[in-house]
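User: My collaborator sent over this chain with a note saying "see what the structure looks like." That's all I know about it. Can you take a look?
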Amino acid sequence: MFCLLPFELSALVGAGGYVPFGFSTQSDKAGGKGTFDLHPTLYLNGSFNIPYLKFFLPEVGAIFYRDLKDDYSKRSYYFLGDFAYPIRSKTLIRYGVGIFITKIGGEGKAVVLNNGDGYMTFYTPSESVSTYNVTWNLGVEQALNSHYALRFEAYIYEILSSLKRDISYSFSLTYYL
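Assistant: Without extra context I'll predict from the sequence alone. Here is the result:
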């Protein structure tokens, strides 16, 4: 029956930056956080205007990590199932769930790093491995004109675990096709 409802579809593309665990990831030896350590992101988004539900915004994207220091490769892909509700004529509140797939690979090298009290040996992956994470998403999107919008969205990992819970977020510019 859901398929019989009338809806409108429009497509969007976007680019921006993704900050993985920005409030908890150490970015330098002095203990600084990676709060604005943006990694390039590209995405394709659909916008379904559905009666009574407002908007459904499925999205697929890729995150390209830069400046990896320890001789390994990392790439993430994600799928979002967000809904949106307009709170003003050009402002949307976004909420939903997502799946993030992160692939990490390396040559299995030993890397000696400072761990605070001394040095320890850590090992890079010797093969490609993938992790899968479900997120709860919350964001805001502000239209600038009929073709462009700015967006901020937070992705909450492990929402039910007080020990493992963490937040990543993104800033992006969307172009309406």
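A starting point for your reply to your collaborator: Residues 7-102+128-176 form a domain with the Porin fold (CATH 2.40.160.20).
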